From TrEMBL:
Transposase IS116/IS110/IS902 C-terminal domain span: 248-326
InterPro entries: Transp_IS110-like_N, Transpos_IS110, Transposase_20
UniProt xrefs under NCBIfam families: transpos_IS110 (NF033542)
Segments forming domain Transposase IS110-like N-terminal: 34-174
UniProt protein name: IS110 family transposase
Length: 377
């Protein structure tokens, strides 16, 4: 069914442009199209992944409006970038929008529907096309190779979480029986477990032992998968790609190993940033001040960017102080912190992590070594 109700202003720069927004879901897609002749929005519902029907709607709109240029947008999320790639192959301009950048009604109880979301997307993309600042943020679509390379550090992170969960589960099962200070990751853990008895002197119950054996088996499988992933991450540095080259460059610094180098390359440094402000915003390490009238306060860092990158940079900041003590960044940190401990050091390391990320970005793009940094032989 087609519904025509809302009229939006057409972007004057591209008056002969059909704007299309797609609201994705697992059951169906809602399509919104703006008629460039009168600015009216028509909404259509199609089956999930029915690209033929989507292209049919666009073809019909092209024929009715007498124009060829089509700009299609959808929100970044679970569906990734496959839709952007296939639609670009079919001759459409596709913008993948950051959902957090879209303006929404701030009322506590507001109307919400796929149709309203489509209208919101259309207003945002048309404002973006008119050149309005901060209308919305457009995501950079990675290449297939770049997207695939990100799988390794992300899988490693997930496997580490699973390893911790299995280990803690085993410790919890034994703590119930009064057995503490065990190390499930030890190769001889099961042999040592046979020698254990409960806190009140009984042998371990049969079903408990069997449950622990199954947990140990799952833990072993996770350990094997983790070793395989880390081996593939080491091989990634040998690839003749931009990511492989950046990993090799980063590993020349003392204090940066293959894991951190891979995370930085795959999560951030392969991207094209225009300036230091963009890379700082992407990391979420920039301040977020609150200034309204006479009220002025800091809310801490924005945390609006890549969480994996942010945590890795904090870790690298501490490593940099240890392995690059004579660098300008390490001296800057010690000048401001001095002998202070605790919270002040944690605040300063965040600022240093932001500066370090910008310095490494410059090194990866221009080859300029951070001042005072030592490269490994």
């Amino acid at each position: 069914m087609t519904h025509q109700a809302l009229v939006v202003p057409v972007a004057h720069k591209h008056a002969a442009t059909i704007y299309v927004a797609v609201e994705l879901s697992m059951s169906s897609w809602v399509i919104g199209l703006v008629d460039p002749r009168n600015g009216k929005i028509s909404r259509h519902q199609i089956s999930c992944s029915d690209l033929d029907r989507l292209m049919e709607l666009i073809s019909r709109a092209r024929k009715a409006a007498g124009c060829e240029r089509v700009v299609l947008c959808y929100e970044a999320g679970r569906d990734g970038f496959w839709l952007s790639r296939i639609l670009q192959q079919r001759g459409l301009e596709v913008l993948v929008l950051d959902p957090a950048s879209l303006p929404v009604d701030r009322r506590q109880r507001r109307a919400k529907s796929d149709g309203l979301d489509v209208e919101m997307l259309l207003r945002a993309v048309m404002a973006h096309e008119r050149g309005e600042p901060r209308a919305c943020s457009v995501c950079r679509v990675p290449s297939v190779e770049e997207e695939d390379a990100r799988r390794l550090p992300r899988e490693r992170e997930r496997l580490q979480s699973e390893r911790t969960a299995h280990s803690n589960r085993i410790k919890g099962l034994l703590a119930v029986q009064g057995i503490y200070h065990v190390t499930p990751l030890r190769p001889d853990f099961q042999d040592r477990l046979k020698e254990k008895s409960t806190g009140d002197g009984r042998p371990l119950p049969l079903q408990l032992l069997r449950e622990i054996e199954r947990e140990v088996e799952r833990l072993r499988l996770v350990q094997e998968a983790l070793k395989q992933v880390e081996k593939e991450m080491a091989d990634l540095a040998m690839w003749n790609t931009r990511i492989g080259r950046i990993i090799r460059m980063l590993m020349r610094f003392k204090g940066i190993g293959p894991v951190l180098a891979t995370v930085l390359a795959c999560e951030c440094l392969y991207k094209d940033f225009a300036n230091r402000s963009e890379i700082g915003s992407y990391s979420g390490l920039v301040p977020s001040p609150w200034r309204s009238g006479g009220i002025q306060r800091e809310q801490g860092i924005s945390k609006a960017g890549n969480g994996r990158l942010r945590s890795s940079m904090i870790e690298l900041g501490w490593l940099w102080l240890q392995w690059q003590p004579n660098s300008a960044l390490s001296k800057w940190f010690h000048e401001r912190v001095g002998d202070l401990k605790g919270r002040i050091r944690k605040i300063a390391i965040v600022a240093m992590a932001r500066k370090l990320l910008i310095a490494l970005w410059k090194f990866a793009t221009t080859g300029v070594v951070p001042e005072g940094a030592i490269l490994a032989d």
